[in-house]
Amino acid sequence: MIKGLKICGVSDSKTLNYILNHQYPPKFIGFITNYKKSKRYVTYENLKNLINVNKKQINFVSVLVSPTNELLEKIKNLNFDYYQLYDVNPIRTLEIKKKYKIKIISALTISSKEDVDRYEDYLEISDIILFDSKGYHRSESFNHNLLEQVPNEVNKMIAGNIQIDDIPYLKNKDFIVDLSGSIENNEGEKDINKIDRLLKIFAKP
After folding, report:
1. In terms of CATH architecture, what is 4-203?
2. Would you say 24 and 205 are in contact if contact means Cβ atoms under 8 Å apart?
3. Which residues of the chain have pLDDT under 50?
4. Which DSSP state fits 84?
5. Which residues have a Cβ under 8 Å from the Cβ of 22 and sit 6 or more positions away?
6. 122 and which of 36, 126, 138, 195 could share a cystine (Cβ 3.0–4.6 Å)?
7. Is the pTM of this model over 0.85?
8. Domain ranges of the chain
9. Is 137 in contact with 160 (CB distance < 8 Å)?
């Protein structure tokens, strides 16, 4: 069965508080920390205030694309449990994990089997392997069938334009599901009603 849900791209306190206090909260909440191309990006000052809350056993995830040493030093004391790293090679990933003593989600962007196979380079380093589309801030899909050869024991997370109505069909899968665009309104803002529907659908047996 699905191991958990991640709601990504939260950028305002109203949405965050709603999720934190929901009857069926997700396992992870992600915050776009340094990718300014994303409409979900949160500046450092806003982020610092936004996540200075009681997480209620939810894991807070800092989403980072090729983070610099300067940025990592800046955010090291913020209320994060995981760093989700895009475009970071295994050597650099291990350096970050050891220096900041933080759990790591290594994000691989997928369009082919060769892209999937790169997970093996991160197995001994990362706590979770995220298989995402090449879209980054755009909600794009990739063929999830490419993941069928990845062993069950790998702690997997999948993203890539997953819709709320996909959840019942994923219930027999052994991964964490990451949603963002599908729980937003036409203006690209998180939609409380869609989040509520997602969490209730996920909670159903």
Report:
1. Alpha-Beta Barrel (3.20)
2. no
3. none
4. E
5. 195, 196, 199
6. 126
7. yes
8. 4-203
9. no
